[in-house]
Amino acid sequence: MLDNKKISKFAISIVDELQKNNYEAYLVGGCVRDILCNMSPKDFDIATNATPEQVRKVFKASRIIGKRFRLVHVFNRNELIEVATFRSDAGSSNNQIVKDDQGKILRDNIWGSIEDDCKRRDFTLNALYYCPISEEIKDFSDGLVHIKKKIIVSLGDPQKRFEEDPVRSIRAIRFSSKLNFKLENTVKDAIYDKSYLLADISNARMFDEFCKIFLGGDGEKNLNKLESFGLLKYLIATNPDNDYAKKVMLEAVKNTDSRVKNNQSKTPGFLIAALLWPALLKECSNKEGINIRKFFRSMDKVLKNQQQKTAIPRKFYNYIKDIWILQLKLHSRIGNQPYKLIRHPRFRAAFDFMLVRERAAKIKVGPGDWWDKFQKDDDALKRKLIDSIKEKSDEDSYKKFGFSEELR
Known about the structure:
Elements: H1 9-20, E1 25-28, H2 30-36, E2 45-48, H3 52-58, E3 62-65, E4 71-75, E5 80-85, E6 98-99, E7 105-107, H4 114-119, E8 128-131, E9 136-139, H5 143-149, E10 151-152, H6 158-164, H7 168-179, E11 182-183, H8 185-194, H9 203-214, H10 219-229, H11 243-261, H12 268-284, E12 285-286, E13 289-290, H13 292-309, H14 317-329, H15 337-341, H16 347-360, H17 367-374, H18 379-387, H19 394-400
Parallel strand pairs: 2-5, 10-11
Antiparallel strand pairs: 1-2, 1-8, 3-4, 4-5, 6-7, 8-9, 12-13
Helix pairs in contact: 6-8, 7-8, 7-10, 10-11, 11-12, 11-16, 12-13, 12-14, 14-16
């Protein structure tokens, strides 16, 4: 039995209303799994035998969305609940499948029973159906047993299931980290054997997975597991081929994990800037230092390479570039420049990344310490700090102050 107190009252009301209209309806998937694992669900999904049109008739405040998978969003002022119709195996009714000239499935809205719907799901722990009215759980695949054993088990042959949808390998890792569950050996084998298929997944979908796996609070665990399974290269266009590159990536995800745990804002733009920093350095520098012209020319190249892996929304392009450029400017603290920089809209993000870089490079007292003091509301201290910086050319400071530890 689940604790209904952890369930949205709005979600319960939707299930109740559908059942009053003689339809089957259940909470399904991650929300059921999370409650069973003593976690609070972030959202609630409902599965029903009512078609999207029938659901739409029951709830005036709703809309049908999607083409390949038609769903209904039911909403009130503060909440939106996704309602999906039970689906059957797409291969069982080819006449109902719409494909393009290349054979890609565009639409496969084939309705089925709850048992059919269960078979389409990825892992047994995500194939549990719960009725908050009768407080009954329907389990067709030993999902309850696997949750009790704390193990991730594929629903069906994982080799075949991961071939059908290679993103399941990333999802398996994410669930393992989130729930602190082990991966079943057959699932591990399928990740190794089928991961190459991730290269064909759309960059838009991979960006969505990037955000889920790195912005949910378990980024450090996921980074280590992705690297262990050889999947990191499908999400990040950089090869952490030296100790510093590995450390800056690790410190970046640890920083984001910390922000998630402290309920602070986080953005994929910051994380992309941090994770791609080693790639940018590789493009524009050597052991002598950074070539400034190459630095600016290389930014677009590095972002373009990442775009091949994951889509980067256009709104993040300037954000990422600002963080990178400010890494140079934060090393040059002459005259009135610090006063201007501290008012820059990206200053705080750039400062946080400077601290990430310093931790990765094991710099105990660097510019980050200087900037931490400069942010204090003390004009005399600010003047003293600026006076402590010997005047030098910007290019010289970029080459010699702070970056040498990263370029070794």
